[in-house]
């Protein structure tokens, strides 16, 4: 999937793909306006959103209620590196969901493709090219 990243001004960096635009910005302390989440926040949000798609699908496939369903995500930094050392996801389900489904919900969230890319990271190739005048 091709994505085009452009720079609309200030510290904004927007990503365009299909018919979508994902805006990002830096907080004022980082030279931005705080008009959108940071790229790293979007990255972290993709983890919980991805797990959520699988959890939601599991419940919907079984005709189980989803009202009130949510996932609480916490990213805990490693104090030695400052990088994220652990990501916790707590699936909070409606009280009408039988406990017998809890482990299956965890297995569903574990299928998240974003998480799987952590387990099997891609190789990066970064190049530079001059813009061709129109």
User: Uncertain segments of ≥5 residues (pLDDT<50)?
Assistant: none
| Major β-sheet strand ordering | 1-2-3
Q: Average pLDDT across residues?
A: 96
* Estimated structural class: alpha+beta
Give the biggest sheet: 3 strands, antiparallel
Q: In CATH terms, what is the fold-level topology of the largest domain? A: GMP Synthetase, Chain A, domain 3
CATH architecture of the largest domain: 2-Layer Sandwich
Helix content: 25-40%
Count of helices?
Answer: 3
Overall number of domains: 2
Report how far the terminal alpha carbons are from each other: 24 Å
What is the string of SSEs from the N terminus onward?
A: EEEHEEHH
Query: What is the total tally of β strands?
Result: 5
Globular, elongated, flat, extended or rod-shaped: what is the shape?
elongated
> What would you give as the CATH superfamily of the largest domain?
K homology (KH) domain
Radius of gyration: 19 Å
Offer a quick outline of the entry.
The chain is an alpha+beta fold and 134 residues long.
Topology:
Layout: E1 4-9, E2 12-17, E3 20-24, H1 39-61, E4 70-77, E5 84-92, H2 102-109, H3 113-119
Antiparallel strand pairs: 1-2, 2-3, 4-5
Helix pairs in contact: 1-2
How does this model look, in words?
α1 crosses α2. The chain has three helices and five strands; from the N terminus they run βββαββαα. The chain folds into two domains: 1-36; 38-124, K homology (KH) domain (GMP Synthetase, Chain A, domain 3, 2-Layer Sandwich), CATH 3.30.300. It starts with a strand and ends in a 15-residue tail after the last helix. With 134 residues, it is α+β, with helices and mostly antiparallel strands. It has a three-stranded antiparallel beta sheet, with no helix packed on it. It has a two-stranded antiparallel sheet with strand order 4-5.
């Amino acid at each position: 999937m091709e994505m085009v990243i452009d720079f609309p001004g200030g510290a904004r960096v927007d990503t365009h793909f299909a018919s979508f635009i994902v805006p990002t910005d830096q907080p004022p302390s980082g030279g931005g306006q705080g008009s959108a989440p940071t790229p790293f926040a979007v990255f972290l949000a993709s983890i919980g959103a991805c797990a959520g798609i699988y959890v939601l699908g599991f419940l919907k496939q079984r005709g189980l209620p989803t009202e009130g369903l949510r996932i609480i995500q916490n990213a805990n930094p490693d104090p030695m590196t400052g990088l994220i050392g652990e990501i916790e996801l707590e699936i909070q389900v409606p009280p009408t969901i039988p406990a017998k489904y809890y482990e299956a919900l965890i297995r569903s969230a574990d299928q998240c493709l974003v998480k799987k890319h952590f387990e099997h990271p891609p190789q990066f190739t970064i190049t530079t090219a001059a813009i061709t005048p129109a």
